[in-house]
């Protein structure tokens, strides 16, 4: 590297550090927080938080099913209009990070697919799915965590944990946040117990959903659009006894969700795309159904107790959002529940989704404060619409 480019790089680093410090100061002032003095913060060992935790999962049957479902889905997706293609904020993620997993899945390469998935949360295939910045690789995974980055990470983590405790009125223990380690998770420690990053968020929404639908008759049906890697799906199956969880996602993330949930729940009946018809009957027969996004068109009408979306719709194009909202409203018999950006969106913002109509009324809208420990200007709100 020439001296000029080295100086330029250094200057960018100085600027980024300056902005981060200012943001950290802002967050602390805004929260009026004493988290950095707390035992949970002080006793966390960052090296341990980011220590390798890969779980070995060489299950050829699972990998084969995932690869088959993915390739069938891609074949159909290619023939469909723009609303069902990857777009808007997700296009750069696909272009910059997803290449390795797309090649592995496309070439039916079970060994590579499995190897990538055994490391998910620290791989391109999961960028954007665990709520943390894309720069995790440079700043955390290489073993050299700066004091400032470490402080920002721990403030955010302990804030989220405390927020979960507060929202759930202290009725759960840290052990309730347990998630199987599939992939290569990082997280934080509370009283020496590992909490996978994001577990509080998934657990909270699973318990909220469970509360909202507990009065509904018979087997519960919860539909999620854009379920990430399956974190909410994992907890829904844990906290609701008799539930069918149906997730729709772009084929690449659909494949990852299938990997996580099939490993977490080997005993459950899980339907992947193309293995059986997707209809009303399958919804009453399977525990988990993981479908490509366009199959939302085949969701039976009025069968879901609740449809959920989080950190997802406001990142899509207007055409895609309109298509999904129409289908999700058609599919639910009771609730539409979502958490999305109200300002930071370059298409429709959460208030503009057009959910309210003669059938659906806005029951509550409140700030979803999960990211306040890292961003004092966070703009996410949680919306519940019911019939
Ligand atoms: C930021 S992640 C959020 C994941 C999860 N809901 C959460 O809150 O942690 C966005 C999710 O939306 C999905 N997504 C993005 N564009 C989509 C599209 N056009 N159709 C369906 N899902 C899409 C992504 O694949 C991903 O699962």
Describe the structure.
- The chain has 387 residues and is an alpha/beta fold.
- The chain is 42% helix and 16% strand.
- It has a domain at 1-29.
- It is built from 14 helices and 10 strands.
- The strands form 2 sheets. The chain has an 8-stranded mixed sheet. It has a two-stranded antiparallel sheet with strand order 1-2.
- Helix 11 (231-239) links the parallel strand 3 and strand 4.
- The chain is globular, with a radius of gyration of 21 Å.
- The protein starts with a helix and ends with a strand.
- The model has no long low-confidence stretch (mean pLDDT 95).
- Bound molecules: S-adenosylmethionine.
- S-adenosylmethionine binds next to loops.
Please outline the helices and strands.
Elements: H1 3-31, H2 39-42, H3 46-49, H4 60-77, H5 90-97, H6 99-106, H7 110-117, H8 136-141, H9 147-167, E1 187-190, E2 193-196, H10 199-213, E3 220-225, H11 231-239, E4 243-249, H12 251-264, E5 270-272, H13 280-285, E6 288-292, E7 304-310, H14 318-331, E8 332-341, E9 361-367, E10 380-386
Parallel strand pairs: 3-4, 3-7, 4-6, 5-6, 7-8
Antiparallel strand pairs: 1-2, 8-10, 9-10
Bound molecules: S-adenosylmethionine.
Question: What's the gist of this structure?
Answer:
The chain has 387 residues and is an alpha/beta fold. The protein is 42% helix and 16% strand. It has helices spanning 3-31, 39-42, 46-49, 60-77, 90-97, 99-106, 110-117, 136-141, 147-167, 199-213, 231-239, 251-264, 280-285, 318-331; strands spanning 187-190, 193-196, 220-225, 243-249, 270-272, 288-292, 304-310, 332-341, 361-367, 380-386.
């Amino acid at each position: 590297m020439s001296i000029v480019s080295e100086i330029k790089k250094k200057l960018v680093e100085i600027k980024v550090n300056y902005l981060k410090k200012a943001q950290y100061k802002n967050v602390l002032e805004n929260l009026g927080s004493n988290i950095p003095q707390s035992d949970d913060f002080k006793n966390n060992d960052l090296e341990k938080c980011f220590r390798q935790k890969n779980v070995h999962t060489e299950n050829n049957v699972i990998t084969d099913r995932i690869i088959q479902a993915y390739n069938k889905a891609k074949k159909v997706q290619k023939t469909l209009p723009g609303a069902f293609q990857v777009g808007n904020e997700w296009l750069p993620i696909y272009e910059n990070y997803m290449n390795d997993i797309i090649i592995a899945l496309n070439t039916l390469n079970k060994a590579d697919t499995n190897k990538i998935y055994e490391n998910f949360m620290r791989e391109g295939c999961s960028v954007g799915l665990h709520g943390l910045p894309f720069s995790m690789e440079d700043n955390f995974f290489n073993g050299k965590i700066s004091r400032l980055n470490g402080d920002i990470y721990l403030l955010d983590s302990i804030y989220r944990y405390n927020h979960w405790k507060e929202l759930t009125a202290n009725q759960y223990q840290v052990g309730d946040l347990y998630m199987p380690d599939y992939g290569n998770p990082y997280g934080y420690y509370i009283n020496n117990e590992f909490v996978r990053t994001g577990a509080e968020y998934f657990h909270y929404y699973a318990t909220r959903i469970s509360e909202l639908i507990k009065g509904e008759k018979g087997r519960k049906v919860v539909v999620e659009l854009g379920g990430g890697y399956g974190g909410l799906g994992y907890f829904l199956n844990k906290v609701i006894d008799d539930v069918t969880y149906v997730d729709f996602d772009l084929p690449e993330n659909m494949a990852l969700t299938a990997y996580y949930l099939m490993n977490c729940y080997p005993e459950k009946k899980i339907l992947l795309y193309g293995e059986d018809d997707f209809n009303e009957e399958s919804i009453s027969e399977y525990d988990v159904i993981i479908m490509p996004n366009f199959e939302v068109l085949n969701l039976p009408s009025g069968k879901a107790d609740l449809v959920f979306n989080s950190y997802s719709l406001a990142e899509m194009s207007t055409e895609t959002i309109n298509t999904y909202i129409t289908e999700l409203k058609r599919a639910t018999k009771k609730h539409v529940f979502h958490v999305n950006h109200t300002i930071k969106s370059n298409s429709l913002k959460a208030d503009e989704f057009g959910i309210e109509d003669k059938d659906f009324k806005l029951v509550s809208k409140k700030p979803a404060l999960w990211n306040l420990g890292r961003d004092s200007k966070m703009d996410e709100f949680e919306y519940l619409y019911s019939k």
